[in-house]
Design brief:
The chain is of the alpha/beta class. It has a single domain, classed as 3-Layer(aba) Sandwich (Rossmann fold), CATH 3.40.50.10900. About 30% of the residues lie in helices and about 25% in strands. The strands form three sheets. It has an eight-stranded mixed β-sheet with strand order 1-3-6-7-2-8-11-9, with helices on both faces. A two-stranded antiparallel ribbon has the order 4-5. The protein has a two-stranded parallel sheet with strand order 10-12. A hairpin with a 5-residue loop joins strand 6 and strand 7. Helix 2 packs across helix 4. The longest helix is centred in the middle third of the chain and has 17 residues.
C-alpha cells in the first residue's frame, strides 16, 4: 500500500516536540480531546495523511472544497516555544492488514522527521463512578522515565487488550525508535463523553508539561456543541462491533 502525505506547509513536520494521535473509539474520548485542543490553541492544518484503506468517501471541507478521505495533521505552537502535532480523522481502515499498513507507514514518516514521541489518546470503558486518567507504556525504559516524572502509569489496564489502528500506533511505535504511550481516561462509553476528554487533556498537559491552552466551558464553541450532541444513553456501539469480546477499539 502507499501512504500519500499531502504537506500543506513546507515546515509541517520540522522541529516537532511531540505528536498526539487519536481516532474515533470508546466515547470518542481521544478524538474529541484533540479537537478541543486544536480549537483552544488555534491549531493550523499543515498536512493530510491519505491512505487507500480509508473508506472512499470524499467530503466537503471547511472551505467548501471536496477533500479526499484522510487523517488531518494540525500544528500547535505554544507560548513557551513547544511544537505539537495532532493527528486525527473520521475513521480508519476496516481491514486489519490495512490498519497495520497505515500505522507502520505513518510511524515511519514520523520517525523519519526526527520526532521522538507519540501519545495516543483514548477512552477506557468503566463504571460511571470511576473517573480516572492514566498512561499505559509500550516500553520498559520509557515507563521508568514516566514514573520518575510522577506520571500515573498502569500495568494492569486495559486488562482485555485493545484493537484498531490507535492500538497499533501506540504498540508499534517503539519498533520505529519512538517513545510512545496510550493515555486513557475512563468513560461510560457513550459517544461524546466530553468530561472524559477534558480529564484526559488535563492529565496529558500536566504529565508532559505541554504548556497548552485547555478548553473552558464558557468559551469553547466545540465543547458546547459536543455537550448538546452527547446522548443520555450509555450504549456503546463500538463494543457491539468488536471481533473479540475482551478487547475494544480505542
Amino acid at each position: 500500500m502507499t501512504l500519500f502525505i499531502d504537506a500543506l506547509d513546507k515546515n509541517a513536520f520540522s522541529k516537532v516536540d511531540i505528536v498526539l494521535f487519536a481516532l474515533p473509539g470508546v466515547g470518542d474520548v481521544g478524538k474529541n480531546a484533540i479537537e478541543l485542543l486544536n480549537e483552544a490553541n488555534k491549531a493550523v492544518t499543515v498536512a493530510r495523511y491519505i491512505h487507500p484503506g480509508l473508506t472512499p468517501l470524499a467530503r466537503l471541507d471547511g472551505d467548501g472544497l471536496l477533500a479526499p478521505p484522510h487523517l488531518a495533521v494540525n500544528r500547535i505552537e505554544t507560548e513557551q516555544g513547544k511544537t505539537i502535532l495532532t493527528i486525527t480523522g473520521r475513521g480508519q481502515p476496516s481491514e486489519s492488514y490495512l490498519q497495520h499498513d497505515f500505522s507502520t507507514e505513518l510511524l515511519k514518516h514520523v520517525a523519519d522527521n526526527n520526532i521522538g514521541e507519540i501519545i495516543v489518546l483514548a477512552g477506557l470503558m468503566s463504571a460511571p463512578e470511576v473517573k480516572e486518567a492514566f498512561a499505559v507504556a509500550t516500553s520498559s525504559h520509557h515507563r521508568v522515565n514516566l514514573e520518575q516524572r510522577g506520571v500515573d502509569v498502569r500495568r494492569d489496564q486495559p486488562s482485555g487488550g485493545a484493537i484498531g489502528m490507535s492500538a497499533l500506533v501506540a504498540s508499534l511505535a517503539p519498533l520505529f525508535g519512538l517513545d510512545s504511550v496510550c493515555a486513557m481516561a475512563t468513560t461510560v462509553g457513550a459517544s461524546g463523553d466530553v468530561h472524559a476528554s477534558l480529564r484526559l487533556l488535563e492529565f496529558v498537559s500536566k504529565g508532559w508539561d505541554l504548556d497548552v491552552m485547555l478548553p473552558e466551558d464558557a468559551t469553547s464553541a466545540l465543547l458546547s456543541k459536543l455537550n448538546e450532541l452527547a446522548p443520555s444513553a450509555n450504549t456503546d456501539h463500538v463494543r457491539e462491533l468488536m471481533e473479540e469480546p475482551d478487547a475494544f477499539y480505542i
